[in-house]
Amino acid sequence: MKYKLKVLTPTFIGSDEKYLKFFNFVYINGNIYIYNFDDLINTFENENSIKNFLRDIERWYNIIRRNRSQRNEANNLEENLSQNILHRLENNELKYVLYDDLGYIFKEIDKPIFSVGNPIIPGSSIKGFIRSVIIYQRLRERINDINTKLENLRNDANLRWYEKLNGFFNFVQELVNNIENEIKDKIHSIQVSDVILSCDLLELYKLSFHNMRNFPVYIEAIKKFEENGNNYYLTLKLDTNNLIDIDTINRFTRQIYTLEQNFAETNGINLNQIENFNSNTPNTQEIYLRIGKYTGLLSHTIWIALFENKNRELEYTDINTYLSEKLNITINNNDKNIKNFFDIRGNIYTIFPKSRRTVDGDLLGFIKLIPVQ
Q1: How far apart are CA 369 and CA 250, in angstroms?
Q2: What's the CA gap between 330 and 7, in Å, rounded?
């Protein structure tokens, strides 16, 4: 089936590559110029001038990494390097993004995935999210087994609190492993095409981190689509009879959004609202998903399946409250057992985030697929 794509919030499909300052971009007078390093090098007159240029870049990076007391020297180097680069590339077509709040240690920009010069949303990103929804649904089908295991652990007086956690996590991990083996071959029946976008849909954003300390992170991401902007399409082949239905995908995405709103309200974070995410519209053919990097671990957590009550409403919004009540334990995060336990063991219980990332009040990565008749 053919769908029209709508990007509801800034979406970053990371390539694991970065634009590096002076190698791929320069920031001057409020503008960021992004360029090809080979084009820049070709403007130098001789090898000596190239060596001097690279030496100054190395000096700048060494100062900001190791000796910020020499900030004046770093500023002078940055000014000279930037002017030199801008002068050499002034006759070329430069891509720039205006941004007015860049910190001192601004040395890299996370780069999105490109294909033949254009940003893309790979079909694998959408397929990966749907895979998480399938695991979520299969866990819901086993909720009675999960509750029985919780009750048995809760009533075992011989187990210490962290031993109960250990028993439960191992049980859930085994369930997830079994589900992944069950659906491994069927996942191939989901086919999603890549979406090739235009470069004018990219924007530079500074990530805001909530409940964690971090250096500023800058990303070049796909911005929210304008109502009357260009349309982009993809094809999605989804075996709804044997794998998953659209209502379940939308429920999972909506539960993610509800948890994000709860976190924002609890921590005093102002979020921009996303269209239709607070309304339950069953039997719709529109598909809501969350994809990309910096979306937080909620996008592939299985805990949502366990947090829901019989009416499929969220009864819990955080992992500690859920486990404390279900196992009748007090989780002591400072206990040496829990520290060793969380560091060494698998990842089932660590995929519930304690922090969030936003850009300009928007959560990242929410998209909508609209069927095309």
Answers
A1: 11
A2: 42
> Residue 26 in contact with residue 85, Cβ under 8 Å?
yes
Position 33 scores a pLDDT of 85
CA distance 172 to 146: 8
The half-sphere exposure of 144 on its side-chain side, counting CA atoms within 13 A, is 1
In one letter, which amino acid is 253? T
Both structure tokens of 6: 């709508």
Candidates 127, 125, 236, 235; CA nearest to 187 is: 127
Structure tokens belonging to residue 170: 């191992």
- Which of helix, strand or coil describes residue 281? coil
Q: Which two tokens stand for residue 351?
A: 């995929």
State both tokens at 185.
């071959």
What does the pLDDT look like over 254-304, one tens digit per residue? 999 988 888 888 888 888 888 766 666 655 789 999 999 988 766 667 788
What global pTM score does this model have?
0.87
Helix, strand, coil percentages for the chain (3-state, nearest 5): 40, 20, 35
Measured distance CA(178)–CA(70) in Å, rounded = 57
pLDDT, one tens digit per residue, over 203-248 is 888 888 876 666 678 899 999 888 777 788 878 776 655 688 899 9
| DSSP per-residue string spanning 47-87 | HHHHHHHHHHHHHHHHHHHH-GGGHHHHHHHHHHHHHHHHH
Q: What is the DSSP string of 297-347?
A: GGGG-SHHHHHB-TTS-BS-SSHHHHHHHHHT----TTSHHHHHHHHHS-S
- The C-alpha atoms of residue 267 and residue 211 are separated, in whole angstroms, by 8
Say what the alpha-carbon torsion angle 116, 118, 119, 121 is, to the nearest 10 degrees. Answer: -70
Q: Which of 48-62, 183-197, 212-226 has the lowest mean pLDDT?
A: 212-226
